[in-house]
Amino acid sequence: MGSNGDILDCLIIGGGPAGLTTGLYLARFKRRFAVIDSGTPRAAWIPTSHNIPVFADGISGQEILARTRTNLEQYGATIQSGRVTGLQKQPDRFIAVVEDNDGGMEQIAARRVVLATGSVDIEPDLPDMPNAVQRGLVRYCPICDGYESRDRKIAVIGYGAHGIGEAVFIARTYSRDVTLLTLGQVLELNPEQQARLDEHDIKIVESPVESLEIENDRISAVHMGGKEHRFDVLYSALGLKYRSDLAISLGAEHDPSGGLIVDSHCQTTVKGLYAAGDIVRGLDQIVVGMGHAALAATHIHNHCELPTEDEPDGA
């Protein structure tokens, strides 16, 4: 597409809800764009989400993706399978190097780029249980489904400020029976952290996990320190790995974890490079990612013919 000198209005990297919604807006703005999808959206892990308005009975992540793809394809758009392995910025365009599933390479040129590559949850190190989060044995989003876990016995896998914060969030919102599992990490608490845990009666188990019991596609018992602990729900609070390498390679500003920092139009500190969805620092929610997409796509449409350099009339 870029090899013949053709320049797209926008290249969207990522085929999750944020990327596909960006495409929907650009299609309706009659813009020329392409969507590159590596086929590994985090949204696919969601068994049922009850936070998407209009789906009163809940909707799975797979169904969200299928419906959003179908919606975009109604406008004649196609989602190209592949992975963007490199991104360069020139004065009037971006050049992306795309590798397809067979190892073939091509270059795509676009005036603007939207990164919607998302993030990946850091999996807990559980014995004989790889990919527990992806398999749905361990949950990762109490904002999404904590309501369904209310008043149950809940374990949070985590340590440090993030693990403590998630345990407190669940305890103050959904359940008075919360245990923080550090998987063998020693939890060094300052007085404020200790007070927060004490206030919500959050228990701490620092022993490493020795074995697990599975019942009806869920982890029902965890054996640690020679004792058996039974829980109704396990959440992982080990954080995320942001797929922001392309943006960082261009010098985009980011937080210490790699989450991209954007302006009110979801533009990164690299002019013409936008970000939407989980890759953006902030709240990781599908509706937020869709909001990012609407903001970015509208700004791109309104500024597409303007230069992207740091000039007074730049984007």
TrEMBL record:
<dbReference type="InterPro" id="IPR023753">
    <property type="entry name" value="FAD/NAD-binding_dom"/>
</dbReference>
<keyword id="KW-0285">Flavoprotein</keyword>
<dbReference type="Pfam" id="PF07992">
    <property type="entry name" value="Pyr_redox_2"/>
</dbReference>
<dbReference type="InterPro" id="IPR050097">
    <property type="entry name" value="Ferredoxin-NADP_redctase_2"/>
</dbReference>
<keyword id="KW-0560">Oxidoreductase</keyword>
<dbReference type="GO" id="GO:0016491">
    <property type="term" value="F:oxidoreductase activity"/>
</dbReference>
<protein>
    <recommendedName>
        <fullName>Thioredoxin reductase</fullName>
    </recommendedName>
</protein>
<dbReference type="InterPro" id="IPR036188">
    <property type="entry name" value="FAD/NAD-bd_sf"/>
</dbReference>
<feature type="domain" description="FAD/NAD(P)-binding">
    <location>
        <begin position="9"/>
        <end position="292"/>
    </location>
</feature>
